[in-house]
Specification:
Largest sheet: 7 strands, mixed
Helix content: 25-40%
Radius of gyration: 20 Å
Structural class: alpha/beta
CATH topology of the largest domain: Quinone Oxidoreductase, Chain A, domain 1
Number of helices: 9
Distance between the termini: 16 Å
CATH architecture of the largest domain: Alpha-Beta Complex
Number of domains: 2
Length: 327
């Protein structure tokens, strides 16, 4: 039986993404087949659709690193037909056919049961971005950082990771400083819980080895010069959780914050994250992320607009999170 999908094909000059009809025989190996009901748009999906970065490592490819849906068939002991499941990462949308399709076949070990208190649309409103934000908060907590130590900075605050990070850090008790390249989003960020707003211009100049101490914690999805500025302004024995590279992979900093203030840079990796940690993060999101705030940071788009949305997120035109209902 055929089903609709977005397919990326290799070309002589790079790649091209378009809508296509696929067959069950086109699906890859896996022990669970899922009827995809919802997906979302992440920065990595935008890179795949536009071909601006070589994230796709197999052609043809169905992009979409996230999906939620209902199990159609399963030989995996943890899942049965009718179960509602969520998938984030594991190379899906890069090396394994992803969520921009009406159907997906994957390994059951990659799936997480939909947490109690969330529906499939809300799970995709959270998506990899929100789940990564929770992993960042958990990393800070594991390191011993607490709101009593000082404020928390969130960079790229109007994006997917940043928006959820602002909301959950505020819920955890932090004074939240939101940094964004889109100052027109200040009211949106304050509604999510930001106490102060900084702009990209505040992190644009040369980085001195050490600068005035301003925050004890941070969630950074930008990297490059912005992260260097953040580290130089982190309080004694503070920590920054890094999970993105929207500005670049470079880090023009020095050892000064690390050896003179005891600052720590905590790497947050979400794609290969162990299943128990995934389940913990999702369960916490179901309890700690305010549903009204989640709705306020979410935009709903039809499946037919996915290609445009992939281009828009690369061009900085998407605020917060996007939910796509798969027809």
């Amino acid at each position: 039986m055929s089903f609709r999908a977005i397919r990326i094909d290799k070309t002589e000059t790079g790649s091209v993404a378009s809508f296509a009809e696929l067959e069950d025989a086109d699906l890859m190996d896996g022990d669970v087949t899922v009827r995809v009901t919802h997906t979302t748009v992440n920065y990595k999906d935008g890179l795949a659709i536009t071909g601006k970065s070589p994230v796709v490592r197999r052609f043809p490819m169905v992009p979409g690193v996230d999906f939620a849906g209902t199990v159609e068939s399963s030989s995996h002991p943890e899942f049965k037909p009718g179960d509602i499941v969520v998938l984030n990462g594991w190379g899906v949308g890069e090396m394994h056919l992803g969520g921009y399709a009406q159907k997906a076949r994957v390994k059951g070990d990659w799936l997480v049961p939909l947490p109690e208190g969330l529906d499939a649309a809300q799970a995709m409103a959270i998506g990899t971005a929100g789940y990564t934000a929770m992993l960042a908060l958990m990393a800070l907590e594991k390191y011993g950082i607490a709101p009593s130590m000082g404020p928390a900075i969130v960079t790229g605050a109007a994006g997917g990771v940043g928006s959820v990070a602002v909301a959950i850090l505020k819920n955890a008790g932090y004074h939240v400083i939101a940094s964004t390249g889109r100052p027109e989003e200040a009211d949106y960020l304050r509604a999510l819980g930001a106490d102060e707003i900084m702009t990209r211009a505040d992190f644009a100049g040369p980085v001195r080895p050490l600068m005035k101490e301003r925050w004890a914690a941070g969630v950074d999805s930008v990297g490059s010069l912005t992260l260097a500025h953040v580290l130089a302004q982190t309080k004694m024995r503070g920590a920054i959780a890094a999970c993105g590279l929207a500005q670049g992979m470079d880090l023009p900093t020095s050892v000064a914050p690390f050896i003179l203030r005891g600052v720590s840079l905590l790497g947050v990796e979400s794609v290969q994250c162990p299943k128990p940690l995934r389940i913990d993060a999702w369960n916490r999101l179901s309890k700690e992320l305010d549903r009204a705030k989640l709705a306020s940071l979410t935009t709903n788009l039809p499946f037919d607009q996915l290609l445009d949305a992939g281009r828009d997120i690369i061009n900085g035109k998407i605020r917060g999170r996007v939910v796509v209902e798969v027809p």
